[in-house]
Design brief:
The complex is a heterodimer of chains A (about 500) and B (about 160). Chain A has eleven helices and twelve strands. Chain A has helices at about 5-10, 20-30, 80-100, 130-135, 155-165, 195-205, 210-220, 250-255, 365-380, 450-455, 485, and strands at about 50-55, 60, 130, 170, 190, 195, 240-245, 260-265, 275-290, 295-305, 390-395, 425. In chain A, strands 3, 4, 5, 6, 7, 8, 9, 10, 11 and 12 form a ten-stranded mixed sheet that branches. In chain A, a hairpin with a 2-residue loop joins β1 (about 50-55) and β2. The longest helix of chain A is centred in the first third of the chain and has 19 residues, at about 80-100. Chain A starts with a helix and ends with a helix. In chain B, about 50% of the residues lie in helices and about 0% in strands. By secondary structure, chain B is mostly helical. The chains are: A alpha+beta (about 500), B mainly alpha (about 160). The interface of A and B includes residues 418, 425 and 446 of A.
Chain lengths: ~500, ~160
C-alpha cells in the first residue's frame, strides 16, 4: 500500500524538479521551523544563478536544503529497484551538499555563498558531538549552539587549545573494537560522531543521556527517534560520522581534501601522559544517516575521498597514490588491522600501515551520478574540494516499516518488522573503507551492512534503540567525592 | 542479465512454483535486493560444471512445459515428473534447493558429503525458515530478546508490497 507521504511527494514535485512549475511549488515549501540549523528559506539568488544540472531527465539544483524525506524520481516505473536506488542516491547527494555547505557563525548554511568556498566549516561541524550529549560525567548536555567542549577527562590546557583552534579529534578505534586505521604515512585516522538538532532535542527532552534516564523511559515506552516529514517540513534525526586523515605536505597542497586545522589528542592513560599535537586533517570518509517518515529504518549514505583505496581486480596505474594502499606491499595482509598495542599519536612503521582494497565495486549507475554531481560542484567552484568525494552507495529498506494509526515512524509497531526489522536492505552490503575498513565482503552478519548491524543497537538496559548505538555511550551522573562510600 | 525473458528461466520458475505449490511472488518477490531465484538458476545451468547436465535440465523443462500445456496442468506435470525415475530425483533436489538453499546431488541424494550450500547470502533465504516461522541457524535479523516472544504469524512471512 502506498503511503500518503510518498503520494504527497509525488504531487508536490521535487527540489530535484522536473519543470519550472514544480520547482516553483517546491520553493513555496521551503519554509521551516525557525530553530533549525538548516532551516528552509527561499533561495536568495535568482533561479537562473543557482547552478543546476540535468540528470535522468531531472533538474538538480545546488542548494543547501536537506531533503525532508525520499522524493521519487520522475522516471517510468519509479518504484522499480533501480529507480528507487537512483532516488536514494540523489537523496544522499542532496543531503551531502546541504550538510557540507559552508556554515555561518551560528552553524546555519551561509546562503550568501555556494558549497566549496574554502576555509569555512561545514554545517554539520556545528552539531553536537556524541560526547557532548552523552557526557562522561552523566551531566546535562549544554544547550544547542553552545561552544564545543572536550570531555572533562582532558586537561584544562587541552580543552583551552581545542577551543582556540576550533577543532579537536581523538577517537581512533573502529566499531566492535575491530582496530584502528593507519594510513600509508603511518598516522592514525580519527573519527567523530555528531547529532543534529532534532535528534539532540529528542535525547535531551526524554532524559536519555544517562542510563537512569533510559531505564525510566523504557519502562513505559521505547525509543522512536524523530522522522523527517515532507508535509510537516521536519528534517528528523540525522547522524554524521566523519573520518579524518592527518595530511602530509603534498596532500595539503593538492587541493583534493576538505581540510581543517585541528588538535590531535590522546588522553592520559596509566603512566602515559596526555598528548596533543597540531595538524592539518583531511576528510576521507563520511557517513550520513537520516530517519524519515517513509524510511523509518533510516537512509544510510556513505561517501569517501576518491584517493582512498583501489578496487579489487581493477587495474592500478603506476602513478596511482592511495591513502590506504601501497602497490606491491604484502604486509600487513589486505584488509587486516594491525595488532595491538595501538597508540594514536605514534607514527607506525610500514608493516603496520593498512593495505585496504574495496571488495564491492561502485556500480556504473553510482559512478555516473558521481560524475554528474562533480560537474555541478565545479559550477560553483572549479577547484571545489568536494569534486574529490564520491558516493559509495546508499542503503535503504526495500520493505520499509509501515505503521498505520499505531505510531509514527515506529519500526517496532510495523507488521513487516515482525519478520525482518531491517526491511531487507538494498544493497545487501555496504561499508566505507575508512569506517568499516576490516569487514568488507558479502557474508551475512560478518561483512559490513549498516542496517543489519545497527538493528542490534540497544539502550544501556538492552532495550531496542531505533538503530542507534549512541545510547550505549551514556554514563551515570558523577557522584560527589565520598558519596560512593556512603551508598548502602 | 538482459531484460528479454529467458524462456528456460521462465520454465524453471513455473516448474519450481508447481513443485513447491507456491506463488511466483513468493519465490521471486519484486524489488528484492538479492534475487535468490537467479542465483539458483545460475547454479543449475551455468559455469564450467553446471549442477545438472544440460541435456537433462533441458529434458526436465521440456517435459514440464509439454505436460503443463492444457489439457494438462502445472500440478499434473509436476506429479508426472516426480514419478519419473530420472527426472524425479532432479525435481526433488530442486525442491530441497528452494527450501534449504542446499544442493543435494540427484545421483546420490543420501550422500551428505556431496551437499553444497549455494552461498552464505542464499543460505538465509531458504524457505524452510519462513515455513517454520523461524530464522536460519546462525543468522537472525530479529531484535535482541526476541526469543522471549511468540514467533510472528505465518502471514507475516509472505512478501510485502515494499515502496
Amino acid at each position: 500500500m502506498q503511503r500518503p507521504g510518498i503520494a504527497a511527494a509525488a504531487l508536490i514535485g521535487f527540489t530535484v524538479a522536473v519543470t519550472g512549475a514544480t520547482a516553483k511549488v517546491h520553493r513555496a515549501h521551503q519554509v521551516s521551523r525557525t530553530h533549525h540549523p538548516h532551516k528552509r528559506e527561499a533561495v536568495k539568488a535568482g533561479a537562473n544563478s543557482v547552478p543546476q544540472i540535468e540528470m535522468y531527465g531531472l533538474t538538480i539544483r545546488l542548494v543547501p536544503d536537506v531533503p525532508f524525506d525520499l522524493e521519487p524520481v520522475n522516471l517510468p516505473d519509479p518504484k522499480s529497484l533501480n529507480n528507487l536506488q537512483r532516488a536514494f542516491d540523489i537523496l544522499s547527494w542532496r543531503t551531502f551538499i546541504a550538510l557540507d555547505w559552508p556554515a555561518d557563525r551560528q552553524g546555519n548554511p551561509d546562503r550568501r555563498h555556494l558549497i566549496g568556498r574554502p576555509a569555512r566549516p561545514a554545517v554539520w561541524e556545528a552539531w553536537k558531538q556524541n560526547y557532548e550529549v552523552f557526557r562522561a560525567d552523566g551531566g546535562t548536555p549544554t544547550a544547542w549552539g553552545a561552544p564545543h567542549d572536550l570531555p572533562a577527562d582532558f586537561s584544562p590546557e587541552a580543552r583551552a587549545e581545542a577551543r582556540h583552534v576550533g577543532k579537536s579529534v581523538f577517537e581512533f578505534e573502529q566499531p566492535l573494537e575491530s582496530g584502528p586505521l593507519v594510513d600509508r604515512d603511518g598516522r592514525y585516522v580519527r573519527y567523530e560522531i555528531l547529532l543534529n538538532r532534532d535528534l539532540f532535542d529528542y535525547v535531551v527532552s526524554n532524559n536519555l543521556y544517562t542510563p537512569e534516564g533510559q531505564e525510566r523511559f523504557t519502562q513505559s515506552s521505547h525509543v522512536v527517534l524523530p522522522c523527517g516529514n515532507i508535509p510537516k517540513q521536519v528534517v528528523g534525526a540525522i547522524v554524521v560520522k566523519p573520518a579524518w586523515k592527518v595530511l602530509n605536505a603534498t596532500e595539503i597542497r593538492n587541493g583534493r581534501y576538505y581540510m581543517r586545522d585541528a588538535v590531535l589528542l590522546s588522553p592520559r592513560e596509566g603512566n602515559r601522559p596526555e598528548q596533543r599535537q597540531r595538524a592539518k586533517i583531511g576528510l576521507v570518509g563520511l557517513h550520513i544517516i537520516h530517519k524519515s517518515d517513509d524510511v523509518a529504518q533510516w537512509t544510510w549514505s556513505t561517501f569517501e575521498q576518491e584517493d582512498n583505496v583501489p578496487t579489487a581486480g581493477a587495474p592500478i596505474s603506476a602513478s596511482a597514490h592511495f591513502n590506504f594502499f601501497s602497490p606491491g606491499v604484502s604486509t600487513p595482509p589486505v584488509n587486516t588491522p594491525s595488532d595491538r598495542p595501538w597508540h594514536s599519536m605514534a607514527t607506525e612503521p610500514a608493516a603496520r600501515r593498512a593495505q585496504l582494497t574495496r571488495m564491492i565495486p561502485l556500480t556504473a549507475e553510482t559512478r555516473y551520478m558521481n560524475g554528474e554531481m562533480h560537474k555541478l560542484l565545479r559550477m560553483a567552484y572549479p577547484h571545489s574540494v568536494w569534486q574529490h568525494y564520491e558516493l559509495i552507495s546508499t542503503q535503504w529498506p526495500t520493505q520499509p516499516a509501515r505503521t498505520s494509526g499505531v505510531g509514527v515512524c515506529d519500526v517496532m509497531s510495523a507488521e513487516s518488522a515482525q519478520v525482518d526489522p531491517t526491511g531487507a536492505p538494498a544493497p545487501v552490503f555496504l561499508g566505507n573503507m575508512t569506517l568499516e575498513s576490516f569487514i568488507p565482503g558479502e557474508v551475512p552478519n560478518v561483512s559490513s551492512s549498516c542496517m543489519e548491524c545497527h538493528m542490534n543497537a540497544t539502550t544501556t538496559n538492552a532495550k531496542y534503540s531505533d538503530f542507534s548505538f549512541l545510547f550505549q555511550k551514556a554514563h551515570s551522573p558523577a557522584l560527589p567525592v565520598g558519596a560512593a562510600e556512603k551508598r548502602p | 542479465m538482459s531484460d528479454t525473458p529467458d524462456p528456460n528461466y521462465e520454465a524453471f520458475m513455473n516448474l519450481s512454483c508447481a513443485l513447491l505449490g507456491l506463488d511466483r511472488s513468493v519465490l521471486e518477490p519484486r524489488n528484492t535486493p538479492f534475487l535468490v531465484a537467479k542465483e539458483y538458476y545460475g547454479f543449475l545451468t551455468q559455469g564450467s560444471s553446471p549442477a545438472v547436465p544440460p541435456p537433462q535440465f533441458a529434458s526436465l523443462l521440456q517435459t514440464f512445459t509439454l505436460r503443463s500445456t492444457p489439457p494438462g496442468s502445472p500440478e499434473s506435470a509436476a506429479e508426472a515428473i516426480l514419478a519419473d525415475h530420472a527426472l524425479g530425483e532432479v525435481a526433488r533436489s530442486i525442491i530441497k534447493l528452494w527450501l534449504l538453499s542446499t544442493w543435494y546431488d540427484p545421483t546420490d541424494p543420501g550422500n551428505f558429503g556431496k551437499r553444497k550450500i549455494i552461498s552464505p547470502i542464499a543460505y538465509k533465504e531458504g524457505l524452510v525458515w519462513k515455513v517454520m516461522q523461524a530464522h536460519p541457524f546462525g543468522y537472525s535479523m530479529w531484535t535482541f530478546g526476541h526469543w522471549a516472544d511468540d514467533p510472528p504469524p505465518l502471514s507475516a512471512f509472505l512478501p510485502k508490497s515494499g515502496f
